[in-house]
Structures are given as structure tokens and as C-alpha cells.
Predict the structure.
Amino acid sequence: MVASIQCVGQSVNSTPTKFSNGVYTPNGSTQPTTSVQGGLWFNPSTLKLGIHNGTAYLNLLSETLAGTTYQTLANLQANLTASATAYPSVNAVNTGLALKANLASPALTGTPTAPTASVGTNTTQVATTAGVIAEFNSRIKYGNSVVTMDGTQTVFNLPHGLGSIPSSISLTFGDASNENFVQSVRTVTTTNIVITCANAPTAGSQTVYWQVYK
């Protein structure tokens, strides 16, 4: 279907012009009272374009047609002005990008953060200080235990809290002169350091400083 709009300079033709295809294209500030479906009407005073739907003129720049809302030229200009903030210029975008770190060998400043890996992770992902400390604490436990001796006991259990059998242990006795402890046999379980003395130590107490390694 072919349609035409006539508007020359400041003068308008308000008289409908009929084309052979039956579509009217009247122009003027006063809306025509009659037309046929598909007829176009341009109002130069409001800069609005209408199309006849068989019953009335629909303003193409404001009506909602097929789910799309068409705007008036004035509203369009206002939206374009507002878009300068909503949609930055290329220069503004480039300025912002210049502040970002490169993907390859970034020179980070401030206090960059990263996800903390779970204990036991063995990959090439970035390590955080929290992850390093958690890994360290999961592999090394240390402390001291006060052992009470009744003069007859030869086996003493010191809980270590590692959660698994340590690969090595280190013990220091507060009273190094107590040979029964110094010369004792040390074994480990998943929960305890086991000190086995050849002879029962003299009744009293002994502080044992210990470290276990996973």
C-alpha cells in the first residue's frame, strides 16, 4: 500500500487528496472528519503523524501499536537529553575502562579481595590470607597439657585435636629431670599423643608442651 504526506514550507493543504489506491493523505492543523483506513494525517503545529484505522486517526508518535509505544518528537528530545547520563559517551566509557586492571598481569592497588578456597584445595586459583591461615591451622596443632601422676600410672594421653594421625610430633617437658617422662615412648592416634613410661613417674604433676604436624 502506498501512502504520501504533503507539507510544503509553512503552508499546508487541508484538502484531502485521493490517490488511485484509495488512501487519503490530508495535511493540516485540523483533523479531517473523514478518511479511509490507512490514510495518513500530518499536523505541522504539533509535529504529530496520524494513521486512520478505519474508525479514527491514531497518533503514530504516541499510540501503543503492536506492543511498542511511539513518542512525540518533544518527548524523544527529552529522552535523548536524559540519555547523556543514563548512557555515557564513548569518552566517558574509555575513561572508566582506563581505571580498570588488565586481565593479564594486573597491577592491583588498595586491598584486593578474592574468594577463599576451602582447606585442602590444590589448584592455581588465587590464595587469600584467610585461606593460608586456615590451611596452616588444619596441619599444625600445638599446646600444653598438665599431666597429673599418681605414682602408679605409666600411660598418659594428651589430646592434640588434629583430627587425624600426625605425621610427626614434638614434645618438651617442663621438668626435664623426670627421666621416666624424658625416656618415655611416644605414639599417636587420631585424637591423642600417647606417652608410655617404662616405670611409673613419681606422684605429682608435669607440664608437657607439644606440637603435632599433619
User: Anything to note?
Assistant: The CA atoms of residues 16 and 26 lie 4 Å apart. The two ends are 85 Å apart (CA to CA). Residues 1-25, 63-70 have pLDDT under 50 and may be disordered.
